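Support reply, case 0932

Customer input (verbatim):
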Amino acid sequence: MDRSLLFFYGLFIVFVGYYAWKAKKQRVLTSTLWQLATLVISMILASLIAESGTGTWWIIVVVISFALLAGGMILFLGIKFRRGKKQFQAALNIIKSQGAAGLYTLLHDESDQRLDWQVIYLPEQNTLEIGANIYYQKWVLFKKYYLRTLSGRTVYFVPDLLLVEVDLSRNGLYALGMFVRHSKETAESVRHYADAIKSGVNQPWRLVDDDQQQKR
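Our regenerated output:
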């Protein structure tokens, strides 16, 4: 066997081992399988042209490999977004029919398919909303974090500080469970918002109504 082919097959085995480890550790099986498929196709093409291929063919192989990988990632992200949107709609239907009781049921969901629920608390705007991370986006400081809210809006929040506890004096993004457990006041705000969604009020929850604000 040609030494160049031995090199490619050896490289292939190394990459297969890496992607298998990645799939097991990070639980991204679909993405990993697509990357492996791209790698296999690249190796097959490389084997076919190893002896007779020209420099142009090698460039084509590289371009095709990257195109397949990019296309696969776009497809994978699209599938994830569609799945997240479908899960969110199912959850929203539960809340619209059960109100706060339905939201608490979702909050205690321990399945692998559960959504990541967050509270967008904005005392400076006098509003509170609950949203889900249907985009499977990672939380990063100073980077826009997008959520789909129960009010039907897509909003983003730019975290500027890692908040380890609820601070009601400033704008913040909190895990729903953390916010509910903080105090009776925060739990009541969540309950009122969920019940308002059940009643068909598709607006952010106002922390203080207009009459109370005028009295202040």
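We compared this against your earlier run and they match. Two observations from our side: Strands lie at 117-122, 127-132, 145-149, 154-157, 172-175, 205-206. The first strand starts at residue 117 and ends at 122. Please reopen the case if you see a mismatch on your end.
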